Amino acid sequence: MGIPSEMRDFWVKRSQREPALLIASPAEERKIFNAKHCTQEGVRAGFKAASIACVATAVPTLIAVRKVPWAKANLNYTAQALIISAASIASYFITADKTILECARRNAQFEQALRNQD
């Protein structure tokens, strides 16, 4: 099983040739720009949410392991780190996902408006 030698040679030769010059249309370039912009916006929003979640979970967790007897006995350093990082990671991904989807919907509505205008 695998790629037959003729097919493999074809793809190797094709990849060694110079790539064809591709010029994207303005609509394609706008879509690519919007996708990159949405991703960056999602990362920024996710980082902000993760930072807030980190502080919001670290403070009560660290206070609890010093004041609450059960937490003092059962939550070692690894458990504390897992609690804080789980909240931060979850908030990052949830916020980034929601932000990217919101931006994509906005762009889709914009594209639809452009199509209807023509």
Compact description:
With 118 residues, the chain is mostly helical. It has 4 helices and no strands. The protein has one domain (31-116).
Structural features, described:
The chain has 118 residues and is an all-alpha fold. It has one domain (31-116). It is 86% helix and 0% strand. It has four helices and no strands. The protein has helices spanning 5-16, 26-67, 69-74, 77-117. Helix 2 (26-67) packs antiparallel against helix 4.
Secondary structure blueprint with pairings:
Elements: H1 5-16, H2 26-67, H3 69-74, H4 77-117
Helix pairs in contact: 2-4
Order of helices and strands: HHHH
- Which bin fits the share of residues in helices? over 70%
Query: With helices defined by DSSP (H or I, 4 residues minimum), what is the helix count?
Result: 4
Poorly predicted ranges: none
Spell out the key features of this protein.
Enod93, mainly alpha, 0% strand, 118 residues, Early nodulin-93-like
